[in-house]
Design goal:
alpha/beta, about 45% helix, 5 helices, single chain
C-alpha cells in the first residue's frame, strides 16, 4: 500500500476535497502526507507581474508598482502558509503525520520534482475539468503530472464539464468480446 502520499492543494473548493480524500487514504494505509502548494505567476489568482515592467516611462510609478506587487505576493505567501498550517493541524488531529512546502514556479514540474525527491508512492491532485481549447491555452497541471510523474497519480475531479444533450443522437455501445 502507500506509505508516502504527496498532495497538491490550493485554497479553494477542489483543494479542500483533495485534502479530505488524501487524509482518508493516509488514515486507511497508515501513510504520511506531504502537502504541496505552488504559487505560479501564470495563475489567475496571483498578482500579474506586468506591473514590474523594467521599461516603464515613469520611474517613480514603476518603483511604486514593484513595491505594491511585492507586498501583494508576500500577503499571498503568508495566506497560503496559514492555509497549509491549518491543514497540517487537521491531519495531526486525525493522527496522520503531515508536512508541507510552498514553492514558486511551474506547478506541474515542481509537483513532479518534489514527488521524486521525497520518494512519494502516489500523488493526489485536483482536476478542474478543463477540456479542448481552454486546456490547450491555459494548460493542465493534472495532465502534466499524469504524464511526467515517477509514481502513481490520483486526479480528483472538480466541477464536471457536461456536454449538451442531443436527444436525436444515436448512442452506439461497443463491447470487447
Amino acid at each position: 500500500m502507500f506509505t508516502k502520499i504527496l498532495v497538491a492543494v490550493e485554497n479553494n473548493q477542489i483543494g479542500h476535497i483533495v485534502f479530505q480524500e488524501s487524509l482518508a487514504l493516509a488514515k486507511a494505509s497508515n501513510a504520511s502526507l506531504m502537502l504541496v502548494h505552488v504559487m505560479s505567476p501564470y495563475s489567475d489568482r496571483y498578482v500579474n507581474p506586468i506591473s514590474m515592467d523594467p521599461y516603464s516611462f515613469y520611474p517613480a510609478i514603476h518603483s511604486e508598482a514593484i513595491t505594491q506587487t511585492l507586498k501583494q505576493w508576500d500577503h499571498l505567501k503568508e495566506e497560503n502558509i496559514n492555509f497549509l498550517s491549518s491543514l497540517c493541524s487537521t491531519a495531526a488531529q486525525k493522527g496522520v503525520k503531515t508536512e508541507f512546502t510552498q514553492n514558486l514556479g511551474d506547478p506541474g514540474r515542481i509537483i513532479c520534482e518534489i514527488a521524486r525527491n521525497w520518494q512519494a508512492d502516489v500523488i493526489i491532485l485536483g482536476r478542474r475539468g478543463r477540456v479542448g481549447l481552454s486546456e490547450f491555452f491555459l494548460g493542465s497541471v493534472s495532465n502534466y503530472v499524469l504524464h511526467h510523474a515517477h509514481c502513481s497519480v490520483l486526479a480528483v475531479q472538480g466541477i464536471a464539464v457536461t456536454l449538451p444533450q442531443n436527444p436525436e443522437a444515436e448512442v452506439v455501445v461497443m463491447s470487447a468480446e
